[in-house]
Amino acid sequence: ICYIINKMWKIVFYKKDNLEEPVRNFIVNLPSKERAKVVQEIENIRSEGIYLGLPFVKKLVGREYKGLWELRVRFGSNYIRIIYFLHTKKNFVLLHGFKKKTNRTPKRELEIAKRRMIEYKNRRR
Questions:
Q1: Over the stretch 66-89, which tens digit does the pLDDT of each residue have?
Q2: Pfam families attached here (predicted)?
């Protein structure tokens, strides 16, 4: 007897108190070609999970951002980032999406993701 084990990870969109999903809204409002590439990379996270590495995903550095990762999508001169974290063994939560033009990720964007991660964890207690 052969058993097929589903190795897929689950992708969860962070929801605000008003049930708005900021990352889903960000993705939906991207131009169609950029949106398609971002969706493909999210599917890669779903299938590869924690084993997907650079250049597609990168662990954020700094103690204050412990547990946060960024999905890295380059489209021409645009750098699209989606910050997420692993909530349980198989659940990734997409927290914040944005475009950037420089190598450094703006602290403001990191703080939004960090705040949302804390809120998400607190709601699950």
A1: 999 999 999 888 899 999 999 887
A2: Gp49 (PF05973)
Cα Rg of the chain (Å, integer): 15
Cα distance between residue 86 and residue 118, in whole Å: 13
Residue 52, SS3? coil
Which among 108, 82, 111 has a CA at the least distance from the CA of 94? Answer: 82
Secondary structure of the chain: what % helix, strand, coil (to 5)? 40, 30, 35
Domains belonging to the chain, first-starting first, are: 10-123 (3.30.2310.20)
What are the Cα distances from residue 25, in Å, to 7, 12, 59? Answer: 27, 14, 24
